[in-house]
Write a structure and sequence with these properties.
The chain is an alpha/beta fold. It has helices spanning about 15-20, 55-70, 85-95, 115-130, 140-160, 180-190, and strands at about 25-30, 40-45, 50, 75-80, 100, 170-175, 190-195, 200-205. A five-stranded mixed β-sheet has the order 5-4-6-7-8, covered by helices on one side. A three-stranded antiparallel β-sheet has the order 1-3-2, with no helix packed on it. Helix 4 crosses helix 5. It starts with 15 loop residues before the first helix and ends with a strand.
Length: about 210
């Protein structure tokens, strides 16, 4: 369940009209539904499940209150979304609220072995500093290219968490593509808010 502190709503209140305009009420085709979703289905139309937006609004407000209390206590949120269609929105949302994000792939140990992850981030920062100072330019063409490729790869994996110096207070996960990766991510996370693309909204606390 959502952690304590479920009071009030967001400053920019979520409206039914906004959810309808965003198409939040459209679920998956009826033949692809998940049994756990049954309580949230309002109706079926043309082979598509219609989501009960009254429940959606209530759950979104609870999630928003939870995050507001969490951030108000000084904690951070890590946004995770590695499916192609989620990558840019996840990055934009995280930057908009000055939080961290993972959009390329979830690396095992991102949270449970954060000390090792930090060493990779420190190495990435050193490489960027060397590039800014022109040190990569004086290397041989082959070595310089290798360093540039390594820098690009590290930025893909750690670019959104370069300034994250401790484990976040919560994860906000927008389907990361693959049940195995999702299980690893969930297993490592502290307080977690999950929004799955199979129309399930799940709140999990460690």
């Amino acid at each position: 369940m959502v952690a304590s502190g479920e009071k009030g709503t967001t400053q920019d209140s979520i409206t039914m009209k906004a959810l309808l305009e965003a198409g939040v009420h459209f679920g998956h085709p009826t033949q692809r539904w998940h049994p756990r979703m049954n309580q949230y289905i309002f109706a079926q139309r043309n082979g598509i499940h219609i989501i009960d937006l009254q429940q959606s609004m209530s759950l979104l407000e609870r999630a928003a209150a939870f995050v507001a209390d969490l951030v108000g206590s000084g904690e951070t949120v890590l946004f995770v979304g590695t499916k192609r269609q989620a990558q840019d929105p996840v990055e934009q949302a995280a930057k908009k609220c000055d939080m961290f994000y993972v959009k390329n792939r979830w690396l095992g140990g991102m949270l449970t072995n954060f000390h090792t992850i930090q060493k990779r981030i420190e190495y990435l920062i050193r490489l960027e500093d060397e590039k800014d100072k022109g040190k990569l330019a004086v290397l041989t063409k082959k070595e310089g290219l290798r360093k540039e490729e390594e820098l690009e790869r590290l930025n893909r994996n750690f670019g959104g968490v370069k300034e994250m110096n401790r484990v976040p207070g919560a994860l906000f996960i927008v389907d990361i593509g693959g049940a195995a990766r999702l299980k690893v991510c969930v297993a490592e996370g502290p307080e977690i808010v999950l929004e799955r693309s199979d129309d399930r909204v799940i709140f999990v606390s460690a």
